[in-house]
Amino acid sequence: MLAKSLQKGDTIGIIAPSKPFNQDRKFELDNFIEYMKNQGIKVKISKNFYASDKYGFSAGTPEQRAKDINTMFSDKNIKAIWCLQGGEPANQTLDLIDFENVKKNPKLFMGKSDIDVLLLALNKKTDLITFHCCDTKIGSNKELDFDYTKKWFQKRLFEKSKIIEPSEEWVCINQGQTEGKILGCNPISILKLAGTEYFPDFSNSIMFLETYKSNPTELIVQLTHFKQLGVFEKIKGIVIGNNFEFQSDKFKAENIVNEFLEEYNFPILKINEFGHYQPHAFLPIGAKVKLDATNKSIEIMDDFLN
Hints:
With 306 residues, this protein is α/β, with parallel strands linked by helices. It is built from 8 helices and 13 strands. It starts with 10 loop residues before the first strand and ends in a 6-residue tail after the last strand.
């Protein structure tokens, strides 16, 4: 199921389904809204955007956050839904999302980190292609600050370009070519769905993985969990993204993945265009891609927007 591409004059709805908005960082959101305005895009903030639960843990109750998701999908004037940021509690909204409403009103749905929970669940329940991308922030050189990200915001979401372009040189970790649908990206977020109806079907997929302030022990535990879930029996290859502040002077995340999965002999490619705090390629979650780890290329094969 495909959403419509963006056009000048469209309205983006911004929601906060995970961590609460921080007033001290308001300038980042203001800069983002101003940038969208300069691109001919209007912005609407959801009703419960500024809410916070009593623990200060989430941007309102699960009901408030789910209502904002459902309302944005119902709103005929909203063409895309972009999540403010990640955090921890996005999975609290899953049982409250009206997936039939989503099917009737397919829209661009975007975010990263804890928002991968929603990207994957929406794709699993409705087949909607969702997008792993930066937060709705400009001003700290972390999100929509990069020229590359601004370029691919336009080329992916307006022009529907199927190219995934390196922002710096990619590294072949294990040679090979394969095809499969993109599923990922943050292992903590993916594993929140384990044992639920929202867990992705990894059959014939390429697993995109990135970590945030992780370490070798944590990564090996997560890879073991995926192995016990049977994920590696289903996937066709792996693309490793940015591993922000990976806590090891001796080991790289991509080499740990390669060694752990040596028995499968997957094509594995290391890139830096998805994850935390670097340029973003706006990955279409659920779309089929051709991965050539040997020649260091990725090509989107499916249409991902109407």
